[in-house]
Every structure is written in C-alpha cells, then in structure tokens.
Amino acid sequence: MSSKHTVKVKPNNNEKTPVDIKQKKNIILDTDNEIVFEFGGPWGVTAMMIGFPLLMFYLWGCLQFYRGKLVSPLAGELWSQIIKEAWPTWYASKIYLIFCLFELFLAYFMPGPIVKGAPVASLNGKKLDYLCNGLTSWYVTLITSYILHRYDYFRLTEIIDNFGPLMTVAIITGFAITFTVYTVTIIQGKQHRMSGNLIYDLFMGAALNPRLGRVDLKMFAEIRVPWVVLFYISVSAALKEYEMFGYVSASMAFMVLAHFLYVNACAKGEECIPTTWDMTYEKFGFMLIFWNLAGVPFTYCLGAVYLHISSIDNGKPIQHSPAWTFFCYALLISSYYIWDTANSQKNRFRMILNGTYVPRKAFPQLPWGTLKNPSHIKTKQGNSILTGGWWGYARKIHYTADLMMAFSWGFICGFNTAIPYFYPAFFTFVLTHRVTRDMERCARKYGKDWDEYCRQVPYIFVPGIY
Ligand code: NDP
C-alpha cells in the first residue's frame, strides 16, 4: 500500500535512547521510536495534504451543484461555484470556532475520571493522566444546543444552511493548527521521532503528547470535535427537513441515530482511549489534526447532506420501501452492538488486568460488554492478548462491525449517487491500512506469542472466511 522504509532515530535531548528504554520494565518497543516512512513518504503525504481538501470540495460540489453526479473535476463551472458558495464567512468562522472553544472549555472544566495512559517510551515509561470528562461534556453540549435552538439564540438549521463556508473554515483551521502545533513544539524542543523531512514531519506531527493545561490536545481533537460536528450536521439537516416538510423521514432519522450512536459511544467509552495506539504512538500532526477537525465531520456526513439536498431538489425527502429501511436499521443496530461490545470487551479486559478499570453508568451499557475470566494468552512481553468473547472469532471483528455500520450509512441513501459511499470506501482503505500496520507492529512486539494468537484465532475480519 505504501512504500515503507525505516531509518534510525535521532533522539532529542529529552528522550532516552532505545538502550535505556529497553532496560525499563514494562516497556514497549524499540519500534515505537523507529521512523517508518509511510503513506508513500514525503511525496505521498504532500499529495494527501493537497488532495484531501480538494477532494472534500469536489465531493460537496458534485452534491450541491450536480445532484450527486461525479462530474469531471475540470467541469466548467464546478470550481467557480464552489469558490462562491463555500467562501469562508465571519459568520461560519464564529459558529465553528465558538463551538471548538466551548468544547475546549468543557474539556478543561467538566468533571470526569482520571485515567492513566500506557507507558510512554520517550518519557521514560511514564504513564500520563487523562481527564475523561467526555460524557459530562457531551450531555452539557446536548442541553446547550437544545436551549440555543429552542429559544432561537442559534437555530441549529444554520449549520446545514452554511455547510460550504463551515467546511472551508474547518479546513483552514486544520491547516492553521497543524502549523501552530508544529512550530510551538519545535520552539519548545519537544519534537519526537522526527524524520528530518519538513513536509513529512508536518504530516505526521512533531508533538507526541501536546497538552493545554490538563487537556490532552490529541484526545480532544479525536473525540470532542469530529463526531460532535458530524452529529450536529445531521441534526441540522433533520430539523431543516422538519421545517420544510413537517416531518422527518426515516432515512434522515437513521442518519441522526447513526451519528448519535457514534458520538455517544466515543463519549461513554472515553476512558478506554488513553491506552490506544493513537494516544501512545501517533503524533499530533496534519494527519490527526486536519482529519479530525475537518475531514471526518465534513466527509462522513455526505450521506446526510445528500438526503438534505435531494429533498430540496425533489420537493420531498427520500423514502425507501419498508423492507429496505428495516434492513438498514437492522444492519446499523446489529453492527453497532458488535462494535460497541467488542471494543469494550477488549479495553475492559486490559483495564481489569491493569487495575485501571472504572465501572461507569454511561448509557447504554450493553450485555456482554464485559467478560468474566475470558481466555487469553499471557505474553512474554507482559501484556495479555484476549482470545475470548468476540475476540475468539476474529482478530479485527470490531473493524468489520465498524465497516458494516459505515455501509449502512450509505445504503440508507440508496444508489442514485456514489457520494454517500465515500465514507465506507475510504474507511475500508483506512482500516485495511491500519490492520497492516497494527499486525506488523504486534508481530514485532509479541513475537512467538503473536504467532500463537494468530494460530488460535486464524481469521482477521470474518470468522470462517477471512
Ligand atoms: P484496535 O482497537 O484494533 O487496537 C489495536 C491494539 O489493540 C493492538 O495494537 C494491541 O495493542 C491491542 N490488541 C490487539 N488485539 C488484541 C487482543 N486480542 N487482546 C488485547 N489487546 C489486543 O485499534 P484502533 O485504535 O485502530 O481501533 C479502535 C476502534 O476505533 C475500532 O473500533 C475502530 O473501528 C475505530 N476507528 C474508527 C475510525 C473512524 O474514522 N471511524 C478510525 C480508526 C479507528 P497492544 O500493543 O496494547 O497489545
């Protein structure tokens, strides 16, 4: 997929050398300090940094001006229309930036459990504290938005009405924060695992654990902005539909439900995130910043945007047969169940073993979300690998469930245009790439124990098939 090669790390002054790290109990990998050129190296990431924003404008332009037809990117008026309709406005800037600052304020001040992350090699094995107040912040956000809308301080329909300018503001913000975080990190001398190639380092990031006081910026960007904005785009489209037609169609209600489930799952399971790979390994660069601030909310929502635009074009919302609608809902809910419980089984299993498990009453707590004494492999490295529950069926069954959800988001839009399938198609690519990276990493980390795990659980995505 991507041409990869590895170079030796030049640890900065604050970092321990790999030899020091090895001596620490409980720690990690030399590979966590290796620089691996991924995504096609500097040329590949340059193409992505230019191509992603253009792709976002293109897909939206095809929906907005060509009823979802994938016109030639060089088509006559496409770009002039996009420039006109998606030009950033002060109003859109205020909406987006006030929202981000409000979420940052909540992340700083709301109560929540403090959870330890995994040991960080570059901090000599230190485990960082993460304030997990995502759930209280989410509830306050819901209540605040209800009040704003209900009492006309800010009508939520403004979001879908200003979609183009909002997307542009998010894109500009993504770039601005990428450059700012990079520059501040270099000035502070806190850069980590640098390749020496400016563009590549901007893409992957310089900072590993950037913080604003007690707010971890990486976790904030991953959880507090993308999914919440995504949810409000579909809520906005649904309210607009209600204003125009006096009811919300089953397809649009599906979108609101689907996005609610996702953002709610991120909030209620936030305490599982500090030990994930993104937190311990990935740096805070364009890849995470741009994608979370702009890419996720403004491309994963294309199905909701399509339903909105087509209802205006056709003079009525899209309605499918009851059977198809039922199928889409059933697919969404069943795959959500597998996804939610598989993630919680694995994360809670690890947390229970580490003594960091914090039982929470967050809604909904699903049956089979926590396993009692599941089968597992105790590795020589120290960690245990779960082989019970969903994890006895396939090694990445949560990815399969997530993908099934993604496809259901497309199916509910029908088949008149391919654009709502951008998310499932792109997500297939992302997850395939993540599987490859993760499997290689785990194989190096756990050696023969990983081989044994693959022997016991031979399937990756679908039990009995692949
Ligand atoms: P995973 O949840 O797959 O975590 C991978 C890590 O988990 C491995 O590196 C290993 O870490 C540990 N692990 C793997 N197998 C086992 C096992 N059997 N028992 C115990 N630990 C194991 O990683 P992701 O962060 O990629 O995904 C988390 C969720 O986020 C998924 O549901 C995914 O679908 C979703 N996601 C969604 C995205 C979106 O854009 N919608 C993007 C990316 C992810 P260790 O080194 O600790 O052993």
Report Rg: 22 Å
Secondary-structure element sequence?
Answer: EHEHHHEEHHHHEEHHHHHHHEEHHH
Sheet of most strands: 2 strands, antiparallel
Number of domains: 2
Uncertain segments: 1-29
The separation of the N and C termini measures: 19 Å
Question: Mean of residue pLDDT?
Answer: 92
- Please count the beta strands (DSSP E, at least 2 residues each): 8
How much helical structure, as a percent, in the residues? 55-70%
Model description:
The protein has 466 residues and is mainly alpha-helical. The chain folds into two domains: 87-319, no CATH class; 330-359 and 366-465, no CATH class. 59% of the residues lie in helices and 6% in strands. It is built from 18 helices and eight strands. It has a two-stranded antiparallel ribbon with strand order 1-2. Strands 3-4 form a two-stranded antiparallel ribbon. The chain has a two-stranded antiparallel sheet with strand order 5-6. Strand 7 and strand 8 form a beta hairpin. The two termini are 19 Å apart. Residues 276-278, 339, 343, 346, 350, 383, 385-386, 391, 398-399, 402, 430, 434, 438, 442, 445 line the site of NADPH dihydro-nicotinamide-adenine-dinucleotide phosphate (NDP). The chain crosses the membrane at residues 43-66, 86-109, 130-148, 168-187, 221-239, 245-263, 284-309, 321-339, 403-423. Belongs to the ERG4/ERG24 family. It catalyses: ergosterol + NADP(+) = ergosta-5,7,22,24(28)-tetraen-3beta-ol + NADPH + H(+).
